[in-house]
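To: structure desk
From: M.T.
Subject: fold request, one chain
Message: Could you run this one when you get a chance? Sequence is below, nothing fancy, just the single chain.
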Amino acid sequence: MNWNPVSWYSVSVQFLSDVRAEYRKVTWPSRKEAIAGTIGVVVLVAIMTGVLSLVDLVLSSVIQLILP
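Reply: Done. Structure tokens follow.
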């Protein structure tokens, strides 16, 4: 790439034009889909938190039995 500011400008304009074209191709989820996805993530995080908490509790109990 040249160090010429005119070259930078033309490359930047082309880049922004490409970004705009790609942005127009994006299909956004509907409100219902976004809410369902969010609820799914929250439920999955809650389940994983419970599982990891249980594993932590068991491992800490084992360590307490091993170490006096």
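Reply (cont.): The chain has one domain: 5-66. Let me know if you need anything else for the meeting.
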